[in-house]
Amino acid sequence: MSERDLRPGGREQWASKIGFMLAAMGSAVGLGNIWRFSYVAGENGGAAFLLLYIAIIILIGVPIMLAEFSIGRKSQSDAVGSFQKLAPGKPWVTAGFLGVASAFIILSFYGVVAGWTLKYFVSYLTGGLWSEPADGYEAFFGGFIGSSVEPVIWQFLFMALTVGVVLMGIKKGIEKANVILMPTLAILLIIMSVYSLTLGGAQEGLAFLFAPDWSVLAEPSIYLAALGQAFFSLSLGMGALITYGSYLSSKERLPGATAGIASLDTVFAIVAGVMIFPAVFAFGIDPSSGAGLVFIVLPGIFDQITGGMLVGIAFFFLLAAAGLSSAISLLEVAVAYFMRKFSWTRKKTALFIGGLIFLLGIPSSLSMGVMADVTFFGLVFMDGMEYLSDLFLPLGGLIIALFVGWGWKKAESLEASDFGSSGIGAFWLFLLRFVAPVAILLVFLAQIGLLDW
Ligand code: PFF
Ligand code: NA
């Protein structure tokens, strides 16, 4: 038995600092960096969106990420329990409940998209995508996601994998796989970017991603899109990083870990952009064509590479694996909470909650097919769920920022974050107290049309 089993309450701990870093990076790096970043950046004009996104990461994302780790490590509890322990009877715990709700919402559609990556992986494995389908890749994708049964089966398979890892426990399940898979994905992304740049769309693609057309900033919805995507990609605002921080002992240095995780996640997104957009222009695809973007563009790239089906096999395997390490952290938020709350076993909780989330995801899966007419906020079900996550994550982040910035004493916050009395700690608190909350509120106001410019 390891030391963690001797701890009061028997909560688990990461085996090592590197284990925590890899798991947190595994949570951050996922479908958000490749699938979601490229389609949201594509829909919002490219370079200006990217700059806005990076500014939000630095001024809002990084400080709140450090706040989540500080809360989790200090409380040694889950997303809800943390607030109940650190501020009993206070309303801050709303952030915890929002977080558990966000876990259900996000994982419900995340499982659907991850299921698509599994389908593509298997299609590359078995030859189904070795050559361009008769009607092209776009029709192939559209036909697949528009059908009723098959996508749900892939979603089920992916959710079963996620539940399997979570019920095996933190250390054994999550820590190990990331060590090999993440660096491999990084290498493959870089190779594919280089390849994509040779396809003839390099100039247009790079200009789209890096030469800002500022006029898109006049569109109010770009701000919520960038804010929501930043939180989504960093796994922020829903207690996932509180939960992961709670498995951490007090030996680590949190600011350095935070900077490393946020940078890595952002670099992954940018490299993914360099991979996607040159190919988008080379193939004459509209960058704003939506959630199917990578599933249409990537096969086109593999088609151009000699032996591309091998690259396709490797790529979709790694993408599904990156999705898995993120999905695990989503499920863990809900599982950690319900386990403690109802004193259920990890196994029972993971199976039950994972099953519920699978069911909740079915309407998303069907929303490109038989349920295409069912809408809320004027959006099909899956887009509606994504919209909710764009709202819930920043709202949770807002409460977390206010809690650490105002709810804790200054000295307490600085100690919990490992900043001590350094000047940069004071700057961090300034960002949490003023900059992040005001910026998030302004984005919400812009979204509901109350800001006019
Ligand atoms: N950060 C993940 C990604 O970029 O794919 C998605 C995610 C994981 C969001 C965990 C939120 C979360 F709590
Ligand atoms: Na991410």
Give an account of the 3D structure:
This protein is mainly alpha-helical and 453 residues long. The protein is built from 18 helices and 2 strands. It has a two-stranded antiparallel sheet. Residues 1-9 have low confidence and may be disordered. Bound molecules: 4-fluoro-L-phenylalanine (PFF) and sodium ion (NA). Residues 28-30, 32-33, 233, 265 line the site of sodium ion.
The name CATH uses for the topology is Amino acid/polyamine transporter I
Q: Overall mean pLDDT score? A: 93
Tell me the β content: under 5%
- Overall form: globular
Can you say what the CATH homologous superfamily is?
Amino acid/polyamine transporter I
Task: List the secondary-structure elements in sequence, H or E.
Answer: HHHHHHHHHHHHHHHEEHHH
Helix content: over 70%
Quick one: biggest sheet?
Answer: 2 strands, antiparallel
Low-confidence parts: 1-9
Sheet with most strands: strand arrangement: 1-2
Summarize the SSE layout with pairings:
Elements: H1 17-28, H2 31-43, H3 47-75, H4 79-86, H5 94-126, H6 137-146, H7 150-167, H8 170-197, H9 202-210, H10 221-234, H11 240-245, H12 254-282, H13 293-304, H14 308-342, H15 346-366, E1 375-376, E2 379-380, H16 381-407, H17 410-416, H18 423-447
Helix pairs in contact: 1-8, 1-12, 1-14, 2-10, 2-12, 3-4, 3-10, 3-12, 3-16, 3-18, 4-5, 5-7, 5-14, 5-15, 5-16, 7-14, 7-15, 8-12, 8-14, 9-12, 10-16, 10-18, 13-14, 14-15, 15-16, 16-18
Bound molecules: 4-fluoro-L-phenylalanine (PFF) and sodium ion.
